[in-house]
């Protein structure tokens, strides 16, 4: 029997879905705990307010689902997701975060998260998401799913994706906009990210393309067909 079959079997037999809650805000933890009632088929096996606590509790309790915030005080929630899934592949991670930033969303998906909801989601949506994830499914809120789809549609149509295979989807998008003549601040506004995040992406791009400055990066990008029409793609608008 596979892990997925096992989870489905436990649910069908009436066993409670075991859940580990990870968030550094006590009031939010209280609200989540109160929402996941035993009579509704849930059992909260632990609560953590830091990455270290989350890793330790996950190893000890091996829950079916970890509900994970990304804003932890001692480590990135993305790294925590990757660690939890690596330590116990049978555990599913549902991200529940204040952040709607595309970088966090894509990073969570790459880390292996089975779902991503924003904290404005209602109780029934969260409960439904936990049940779906426990059964081995994937859940993304309507707005999140729409943004994912538009992002990957734009990526699939973008030139240069095969020329620069080492670049992440976001780095390729930044490079395209850079080649289209936008400065760092304009790129930040276009992608709804901070100037600092743009600069971090550009630094990574320089290293991966083995160029020393922006001018060299733009030449490489335009030779590959990026940014040459003067109207860079706008997948997030």
Give a short overview.
The chain is built from eleven helices and six strands. The chain is α/β, with parallel strands linked by helices. It comes from Streptomyces sp. R44.
Oligomer: single chain
Major sheet: size, sense and barrel closure? 6 strands, parallel
Instruction: Find the count of extended strands (DSSP E, 2+ residues).
Output: 6
Low-confidence stretches: 1-13, 230-237
GO molecular function, one term: DNA binding
InterPro entries: CheY-like_superfamily (IPR011006), NreC/VraR/RcsB-like_REC (IPR058245), Sig_transdc_resp-reg_C-effctor (IPR016032), Sig_transdc_resp-reg_receiver (IPR001789), Tscrpt_reg_LuxR_C (IPR000792), WalR-like (IPR039420)
Keywords: DNA-binding, Phosphoprotein
Domain Response regulatory: 18-134
């Amino acid at each position: 029997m596979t892990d997925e079959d096992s989870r489905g079997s436990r649910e069908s037999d009436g066993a409670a879905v075991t859940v580990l809650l990870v968030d550094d805000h006590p009031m939010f933890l209280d609200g989540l705990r109160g929402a996941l009632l035993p009579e509704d088929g849930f059992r909260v096996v632990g609560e953590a307010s830091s990455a270290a606590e989350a890793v330790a509790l996950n190893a000890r309790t091996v829950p079916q689902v970890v509900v994970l915030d990304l804003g932890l005080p001692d480590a990135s929630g993305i790294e925590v997701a990757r660690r939890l899934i690596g330590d116990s592949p049978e555990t599913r991670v549902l991200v529940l975060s204040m952040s709607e930033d595309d970088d966090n969303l894509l990073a969570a998906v790459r880390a292996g998260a089975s779902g991503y909801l924003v904290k404005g989601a209602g109780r029934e949506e969260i409960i439904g998401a936990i049940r779906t994830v426990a059964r081995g499914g994937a859940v993304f809120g309507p707005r999140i799913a729409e943004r994912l789809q538009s992002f990957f549609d734009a990526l699939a149509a973008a030139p240069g994706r095969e020329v620069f295979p080492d670049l992440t989807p976001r780095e390729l998008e930044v490079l395209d906009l850079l080649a289209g003549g936008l400065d760092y601040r304009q790129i930040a506004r276009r992608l709804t990210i901070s100037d600092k995040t743009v600069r971090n992406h550009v630094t990574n791009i320089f290293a991966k393309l083995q160029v020393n400055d922006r001018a060299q990066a733009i030449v490489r990008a335009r030779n590959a067909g990026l940014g040459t029409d003067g109207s860079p793609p706008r997948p997030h608008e």
